[in-house]
Amino acid sequence: MMSKLVRSSIVALAALTALAAVPAHAGTAPVLVGTAAQVHDSIQLTQRFGQSQAGAAWQSEAVSLTKSFQVRFSFSLHGGTFPQADGIAFVIQTDGTSALGTLGGGGGLGFEGLHGVGSVIQTYTNNRLGLTLDGNPYDAKGAPADLGDSSSITGTEVVAYDAVNHVLSMQGRISVDGQSYDVSDSAAVDLQSLLGADTATIGFTGGSGDNTSSQVVSKVNFKYTN
Fold first, then answer.
1. Helix (H) or strand (E) holding 72
2. Exposure of 103 by Cβ count < 10 A (0-12 exposed, 13-18 middle, 19+ buried)?
3. What is the CATH number of domain 8-224?
4. Which residues contact 189 (CB under 8 A, 6 or more apart)?
5. Is the dihedral of CA 37, 38, 40, 45 positive or negative?
6. Is residue 138 helix, strand or coil?
7. Which of 52, 63, 177, 217 lies at 20 to 30 Å from 166 by C-alpha?
């Protein structure tokens, strides 16, 4: 049972209110960087065709790291090439709303090099799915299936931060060419201490290199949980 909500905001991408954290700013659209684009009720981070892409979509209002919160979202990755590449990440960072990580050959996911933590879905031949605390998507644990060799990856994920007990966690369900897997990961971390700040920017990044994929996030919901 979740603790009583002190403050919450449910974000509807269809109403162009994606990633809005504060009720007073509920109509604020996400800040799009690089190749990221609003497409109907979703955010497309990279396109199916076009090499060396990197995109990010950031919530314009900073999130407090002194409060517990969770973010729920859906995702889809459909390969433009075989293997498809290179993946997406949900990111908590302190580089601001104009930030975009180094391309890192595509495998950096537009996340590598940022001062932050992330929940990674990395495809191509890397096949990683889980948390990373050092801005390096290659440090996430292995995926339950060969993501790069799939033509379609869809699913939902919940990333939660417990600011009282200092635990970052993710759990969800992913479908890889129709085969479903439950996924989860957790890490003991004090985000205030690790990131050296009381607030952070949250959002999504994606990247591709020579190989590509249509990489989309949708149905994003944010809420504080204490």
1. strand 69-79
2. buried
3. 2.60.120.200
4. 117, 133, 166, 167, 168
5. positive
6. helix
7. 217
